[in-house]
Amino acid sequence: MPVFQQAQREEQDITFVFVNQGEDEALVNRFLDHESLSLENVLLDARNALGDATGAMAMPTTLYYDAERRLVDTHFGELSRATLQRGLERLR
């Protein structure tokens, strides 16, 4: 998550959306506070609707969408700064 926080600050031309699947707001907020994370666009998906709609059932999953709303890349599992940058390059 710190990798995403840094990228969200640096990549002003890319919108990051963070979706938590299955946990309530209090738990999510405790996690963010405990980890000292400040993220924009944090959404809650209690019913796993995003996973059902995208087929992304493994967590964590990173989905990269271009400006035309097309899925251009997917990464399953944790990722490094380098892996995130490679995915972002596909959006440019």
Rg over C-alpha atoms, rounded to the nearest angstrom:
13 Å
Terminal-residue CA separation? 22 Å
CATH topology descriptor:
Glutaredoxin
**What is the total domain count?**
1
Low-confidence stretches: none
Strand tally is 4
The level-1 CATH class: Alpha Beta
Tally of individual helices: 4
Oligomer: single chain
Percent helix: 25-40%
Order of helices and strands: HEHEHEEH
Q: Average pLDDT across residues?
A: 92
CATH architecture assignment name: 3-Layer(aba) Sandwich
Major beta sheet, specifics?
Answer: 2 strands, parallel
Write down the overall geometry: globular
Kindly list the characteristics that best describe this protein:
92 residues; alpha+beta; Glutaredoxin; two-stranded parallel ribbon; two-stranded antiparallel ribbon
Short description:
The chain is an alpha+beta fold and 92 residues long. It contains four helices and four strands. Helices cover 37% and strands 21% of the residues.
Describe it.
With 92 residues, the protein is α+β, with helices and mostly antiparallel strands. The chain has one domain: Glutaredoxin. The chain is built from 4 helices and 4 strands. It has helices at residues 2-10, 25-34, 49-54, 81-89; strands at residues 18-21, 42-45, 61-65, 71-76. Strand 1, helix 2 (25-34) and strand 2 (42-45) form a beta-alpha-beta unit. The longest helix has 10 residues, at 25-34. It is globular. The mean pLDDT is 92.
